[in-house]
Amino acid sequence: MSAHRGLHSKLTFAGLLITLGIIYGDIGTSPLYVMKAIVGAHAIDANIVLGGISCIFWTLTLQTTIKYVIITLSADNHGEGGIFALYALVKRTKVKWLIIPAIIGGSALLADGIITPPISVSSAVEGVRTFYPDLNTVPIVIGILVALFTIQQFGTKLVGKFFAPMMLIWFAMLGTLGMMQITNHWEVLKAINPYYAYHLLSIHPDGFYVLGFVFLCTTGAEALYSDMGHCGRKNIRISWIFVKATLVLNYFGQAAYLIQHEGETLQSLGGEFANPFYLVMADWFKPFGIVIATIAAVIASQALITGSFTLINEAMRLNFWPKVKIKYPTDLKGQLYIPSINWLLLLGCIGVVLHFRESSNMEAAYGLAIVLCMIMTTFLLNYYLIMKRVPWYVFSPIIAIYLAIEGSFLVANLDKFPHGGYVSLIISGVLIGIMATWFRAKKISKNYTKFVKIAEYKKVLAELSVDLSIPKYATHLVYMTNANRIDEIEEKVMFSILQKRPKRADIYWFVHVNILSEPYKTEYKVTEIVKDDLFRIDFNLGFREPTKINLMFKEVLRDMVKNGEVDVTSRYESLSKNNIIGDFKFVLSEKFLSNDSDLRWDEKIIMNTYFMIKKLSLSEEKAFGLDSSSVKIEKFPMVLHPPEKIGLTRIE
Q1: Where are the alpha helices (DSSP H) in 41-151?
Q2: Burial class (CB in 10 A: 0-12, 13-18, 19+), 314
Q3: Do 363 and 498 lie in a common domain?
Q4: Residue 56: helix, strand or coil by DSSP?
Q5: pLDDT in tens, 69-108
Q6: Distance of CA 20 to the CA centre of its chain
Q7: Which one of 70, 322, 393, 571 is most buried, counting C-beta atoms within 10 A?
Q8: Which domain holds residue 583?
Q9: 385, 420, 442: which is the final residue of a domain?
């Protein structure tokens, strides 16, 4: 915890540079497509251009700077950010329905991770058409995406060192290009006056529609919050001053160029695939600009991919997602790789590229999902401010203003639905379905798990341990338990030990994993229930910590042996004389839906879907990081609403 405090209070040049490389990929590449989307194929209208950049300036100020950089970054969960970290923080308020915005927001952010790489890379690569108008960029874009997703398995430690200086070059280029155009048309700066935004939205017939494209300038704000744990709050806040300045300069520079060509179309200025981002460049610089833009787009994609891995990892710990395989390619804290998610994201990105083909078509799909995520964050933020005892008359107007702003963005983005917005909503809908089903099924399962008091079984377990008439099953018998109370255990565990096949062991161990509402913590507690015969270990792990029970259990045993709390030497006479450590056997229970269950229609859908998804997810022993050679899986029927009486009639 002190390390995280240090991270958030420390401000260094290296920290600022790393922040540029990690945090701003998504929001930093938005100048590639925002102005192009606002102007579209229509003749350039100075009112729309001025109103558009006025909206962009105030969106970056109100939405990104005030809401995210100033307010939301304060809502950190022991140094970590993101919608799931925020949910883990506010669920302490015991408001049950907060699970809804958490699941919707998390799903929308993941959907954004499928659309951002294609639109960023496509927008950058399409600059090549300035020189080769007939070039088909689709294979190039897919090739870059395949390469990007393939290198994920090796980690981003080395690539990360390359990111920071490249993004510094990128932002310096944005600011310089923008400033050069502004000096030719200083009048464009009058768009800082919010009147031009108001004029566009209230008077111009196409004004409100433009708001859907203006929103694209702030889509990376949610990712910025999610990556807070990597860089620290102070580094983000200070570096944002530089980033915002370069973004604003570039947007105003593109606007200055467009206003000077009022009445013309982008096509007449630079061909069929003209983009104001590239039109402001000198011809000699365009090849360099295209290369730098493509690298920046790849970095933006990289940030969202790693963010998606972190998001899924948190979702698993919070019981929102099936257990999947996680790899740790480097020794960096929080650096992880999830193969199944990596390849699913790649398939999704390729599907988006093949479906839309052009970045201009992708703009319609982009933004609708992320605005939902932002609205959900606002709901959770409301409860965070309540939890922090901020007076209602302070936070209520703030929340109301942001709900109004984001509600307007949502309505404007709904216009995109028939033009491609349905794609992001379908992806979000599928993800919401998986998360909601998994969470609900886990809850149903927990409600129908029967617990018994361990005290009632102490005597029989102590006697079983020394009953030589029963063959020894293992020296150490370990059961994973979901019982939160130390004095309780699942009835099925006692059934497994005493009745399914009596399992004699020298020492019985009950191991419980408790996922905390904070991100990084590794603690354990040992309780001796029956002296020398029965122990319980409780692991308290942060929701971003890997669950490696095999290694953790061995470490606990080493400490206990060192302290003289337990003797793990085999109790077989010949092995004991030679100080041989006893064998360990882990027993895991796998549930299946009993035919005796009498389910309601909604429970039937949820539980059948749950067991179908479970077949595709990681097995319990792999999820707990156990060695499969020492694991025994036992199947138990899960009975929901058993019929109380069948009504049999006895005949003679």
Answers
A1: 46-59, 83-90, 99-125, 138-150
A2: buried
A3: no
A4: helix
A5: 999 888 887 777 888 888 988 888 778 888 999 999 999 8
A6: 20
A7: 322
A8: 449-638
A9: 442
